[in-house]
Amino acid sequence: MAATITDIDIKGEKIPLVFEENSQLPIVSLQIVFQNSGQLSTPHDGLAEMSAKLLSEGTSADGSIGFATKLEDKAINISAYTSRENFVIIVSCLKSEFKDATALLKDLLKDPNYTSETLAKIKRQKQGWLTQKKSDFDYQAGVLLRQTLFASTPLARPYEGTEQSIKSITLKDIRSFINSHLGYNNAIIVMGGDISLKEAEFTAKDVLSLLSKVDTSPLTQITASSVQKTNHIYNNDTKQAYIYFGAPFDYSYKNDDQYKVRIMEYILGSAGFGSRIMEEIRVKRGLAYSAYASLQRTKVASYLTGYLQTKLENEESAKALVKEVISEFVAKGITNDELESAKEFLVGSEALRTETLSQRLNRTFDDYYYGRPQGFSKDQNEKIANVTLKEMNEFIASHPEIVKLSFGIVAKGK
After folding, report:
1. Are residues 53 and 190 in the same domain?
2. Are residues 333 and 238 part of one domain?
3. Structure confidence by residue, pLDDT tens digits, 297-330
């Protein structure tokens, strides 16, 4: 059975419901995805994530411990998180407890735990996380690359928060964010499990009717810089060079030939030992334990990104080799053996990507979110099987912008 999409009416607005009934296990899952309400939706760094953390702390009536006890007694999970683009609330439970889970979700939405004690708790947790990240060189190199590749744009901001921005957040800020970003009109409901469509529609209406209408605006698309730069963070505690690299990728998430990007990405950098980058950097030269590259294409930005770690003395040679591998990839394309291997893996492993309820729901959600027709993924898989070497190499050659690499590197001080 495949997930489907239907519309439900909430206060005169058509709200999408991604749904699949599956009675193999007596469980139900519910996600509410609030579009354009993620980390990039506010200029106050860390505010979106702190708002999600507060919604994971129960109600003001029950308190964090009291609400958590109610959830634990019935094996219910209710939590919230943010991505760059969206704000998500998740509910999962046994079918027998779904009525109580829905009631608790409604209590949470009506009465978030807006208390000074809760704010102080989530601030301490976040400050501790930020302190840990000071010694996480992978994280630092990744942030540095983002600041280099997207300088002077919202993606260059420390949108996950800084010590100062977290310290400055007030309960009023969080209340304002939740009230202005979590609306019925910017929600997508994703629900499935041992539940009928009629029950799912009733639940969605029951929950979303509690929310107000919010102002919405489309996400601003951001272009990665083609000005090739290398920026460093020098730290005498590191034993390796942490090298993150990226480049523009002039491609839209709306395009219908995503299958070509999947093949291109797989062969270039995401196939593990079968990828060009891993083969040249680790297998042939031994310059890194692992090396990876991917082609990101979201509503916010489309770009190439990758990383590796190497010995401090190998920093320059590893960096030069990354440039060489990607330049040759664009100039000469792929071989027939590489294409057939990619086809075999991508087509052959398709069943593994749709074997669980959550995978099917998430795939259908992605197709809707990115404006693709239902059944898009199945169609793409058929096109992977039939694409020719000539078509692939023409596609790869049409993207010379990915050779315009920038680097964010953490290495020992000089």
Report:
1. yes
2. yes
3. 999 999 999 999 999 999 999 999 999 999 999 9
